[in-house]
Amino acid sequence: MLALLSGESYLDVIARLEPIIIEMERHREPLLIVGHQGILRIIYAFYMGLTRAQAPYVSIPLNCVVQLEPSAFHCHEERHILYTPTKALPTDGQDEPINKYEMMTDPQSH
């Protein structure tokens, strides 16, 4: 039997996160969510009203806390940098995503 070695798609993760996001909306006290960048991008996109297509390209930098305060018609965002290295660190494979669709329509990238 051949086993497929593939990860979850963003749509799979969105479906898995939906009940958790619904439960998060019920809470009135502050919540701290720690997770992988992909998970955090989906939660951020939901609260900021972004589309599923935009979610993979949300900037969630390392060493940064993104504070969201949802209200009836919008969500206030504040970012807190926890650590700024004094010298360049080796790459960890967590580079910021590049939106290939924006690059195709951006005249400066040609």
UniProtKB/TrEMBL annotation:
<feature type="region of interest" description="Disordered">
    <location>
        <begin position="86"/>
        <end position="110"/>
    </location>
</feature>
<keyword id="KW-0418">Kinase</keyword>
<dbReference type="InterPro" id="IPR013078">
    <property type="entry name" value="His_Pase_superF_clade-1"/>
</dbReference>
<keyword id="KW-0808">Transferase</keyword>
<dbReference type="GO" id="GO:0004331">
    <property type="term" value="F:fructose-2,6-bisphosphate 2-phosphatase activity"/>
</dbReference>
<dbReference type="GO" id="GO:0006003">
    <property type="term" value="P:fructose 2,6-bisphosphate metabolic process"/>
</dbReference>
<dbReference type="GO" id="GO:0005524">
    <property type="term" value="F:ATP binding"/>
</dbReference>
<dbReference type="GO" id="GO:0003873">
    <property type="term" value="F:6-phosphofructo-2-kinase activity"/>
</dbReference>
<dbReference type="Pfam" id="PF00300">
    <property type="entry name" value="His_Phos_1"/>
</dbReference>
<protein>
    <submittedName>
        <fullName>Bifunctional 6-phosphofructo-2-kinase</fullName>
    </submittedName>
</protein>
<dbReference type="InterPro" id="IPR003094">
    <property type="entry name" value="6Pfruct_kin"/>
</dbReference>
<dbReference type="GO" id="GO:0005829">
    <property type="term" value="C:cytosol"/>
</dbReference>
<dbReference type="InterPro" id="IPR029033">
    <property type="entry name" value="His_PPase_superfam"/>
</dbReference>
